Amino acid sequence: MEMRHATVNAPERWLAHHPENDVVLFFDPSRLQTTARRFLAGFPGLVSYAVKANPLPAVIDNLAAAGITAFDVASPAEIDLLRARLPAAVLHYNNPVRAARETDHAIRRGVRSFAVDDGAELEKLVARLPAGAEIAVRFKLSAPSAAAYDFASKFGASPEAAVALLARVAAAGFTPSLTFHPGTQCTDPQAHARHLAAAADIARKAGVRLARINVGGGFPAPRGEERPPLAPIFAALREGLAVHFPDTPPALLCEPGRALVAEAFTAAVRVRALRSDGAVFLADGIYGLFAELPLVGSLAPARAVDASGRPRRAPGRSARLFGPTCDSVDEWPDPVPVPEDLAEGDWLLFENMGAYSLPTVTRFNGYGDHALVTLMPPA
Length: 379
Ligand SMILES: *Cc1c(COP(=O)(O)O)cnc(C)c1O
Fold this sequence. Notes:
- By secondary structure, this protein is of the alpha/beta class.
- Helix content is 29%, strand content 21%.
- The strands form three sheets. Strands 1, 2, 11, 12, 13, 15, 17 and 18 form an eight-stranded mixed sheet that branches. Strands 5-4-3-10-9-8-7-6 form an eight-stranded parallel sheet. Strands 14-16 form a two-stranded antiparallel ribbon.
- The protein starts with a strand and ends with a strand.
- The structure holds pyridoxal-5'-phosphate.
């Protein structure tokens, strides 16, 4: 996708002058850098960016400019992307399942930190990794966290299995660590803290002194009216470390995807048609930038503007929103408010669209085309 640069700081002004577009994603680099600096200042450890949330080169470059030096990668392609942009970056390969040749590729490219949640996968690593490499055992707790969706159904060893895996990591001469992921968009500060308590217990039972705990991602981003704060989560982590590791605290690492990148993008989507039953058909939907909606719930537009960029201010009505394809799942999971005077050709603007939007866009039914515009403050 070609990136266009615009020296305006409001999407409305750009839209008014580019009528040929129907779906536009606006990137605000200064907002991305501000969020990154907030993480770097608040999190008590190393901040690594989970590349899968948004692998756009401009995102990687701006995070690096803000001071992010570490990246969580999950595939050879993500490793190559990072090595091409930032040859000196620290990479963590925390997808716990890898083909042997994927691991070999990572080793050749200088990756020295890996997550694992299974005995057979661990033996593949033990046979390949250079001595001293970090192996973080990924565990999960049975009680679900207050997350938008659960990350424990696919990955993570039970605490009992993690004890055995961690002991094997240490005995084989690798740097022993633990990791978990509380689930994405997790708003409960105690979820991370509960996992820290479990990590202390696992390490004690394994008789292993942990080098590091990777607390994963899952930090919540603003979503619609909700603006969950990060400070209570950072405080709970600081406190959990002091309580559960009073003598020799391991270093902390986090790998946020969503909470770093979501706020930096706004999506503008054209109204294609208004149906006589009041339903609104948009130029993008579940097969485009909005693939996450069935998992995390409807997102209401932040505002509506007409084709010349003027705000629609009429009182709201509740409407069903549909994407453009002929598939009936291409619908917002719940009705959302839109202004009464919304018309064909108008734009709906959705904020906080930077995470898990661009990478999963499909071409289904001939849709999926979008413009990518970088907002620059006027000089
Ligand atoms: C996806 C993923 C992340 C990022 O999760 P967010 O909820 O976007 O913060 C971090 N770590 C691992 C291992 C992941 O798979």
